[in-house]
Amino acid sequence: MTNFSDLVNWFDDKNSVMIALSGGVDSALVAYAAFQKLGDSAIAVTADYKTLSEEELSTAKQVCSEIGIQQLLLDYDELANEEFVKNDSNRCFHCRVELGDHLIKLAKEYNVQVIVDGTNVDDLGEYRPGIEALRCYGIRSPLLDTNFSKSKIRETAQSVGLSVFDRPSNSCLASRIPWGQRVTAEKLTRIELGETIVKQLSKIRNVRVRDIDGSAKIEVDKKMISTFDDSLLKQVTEKLKMIGFTAVYLDQEGYKPGKINVIVD
After folding, report:
1. What is the C-alpha separation between 97 and 112, in angstroms, rounded?
2. Which residue, among 196, 146, 202, 152, has the nearest Cα to 170 in the 3D structure?
3. Residue 200 predicted with pLDDT over 90
4. pTM of the model
5. In angstroms, rounded to a whole number, what is the distance separating the alpha carbons of residues 179 and 262?
6. Cα first-last separation, the chain
7. pLDDT above 90: residue 145
8. Which of 37, 138, 145, 156 has the fewest CB atoms within 10 Å, counting from its CB?
């Protein structure tokens, strides 16, 4: 039986720890547990890079404020990394290698012993080259070590009062661009704005706007597709074309993580 006390006790023999914290519930729970055990010897780090939406950054700041933990912001431009920009099936690996470099440097600067992330049991069932990259840097995953699943993380986060307990899972904005199509600042901007527009007009929280060669493919949970009647779809289409999309369509199969990415051997 997995318990929150197991997660807190994971930090027993750690003198100091740095948590790679996004705006999601996984790393938020890790940060909360670390702070319960280590207090000010636990530091949260959020990478404010170009593929992180303003919404995610704002949520990350809010979470740290709720917990009371110190937050550092890493500011760098992964679009300067050609290996990342070319957007092949190893994009996440190259992104996390760069993040790992920055985290290691920051940990040395703050004399931090251990770096941890929010990887959990459910992540192991997906294609996640970024996890492999972070392992190369010795970055630890307390949720994995204590056998926390996503549902258990949400349940525990709610019980300890974290506001992000039911926040839909998210990924970086570059994940909306199919492999083989280059990542650009222009695409990232219209994707972020596009998702904000769809969320505001539809009142749906979990939204993806995929940028497919300049066309917007909207993905929402299958049960929410019926929300898009002719009137709403017309509004959304007009707005998204105004920000630069050449065409707009609704994916009738519904949202599924990573569905535009096909792994090629």
Report:
1. 19
2. 196
3. yes
4. 0.91
5. 8
6. 39
7. yes
8. 138
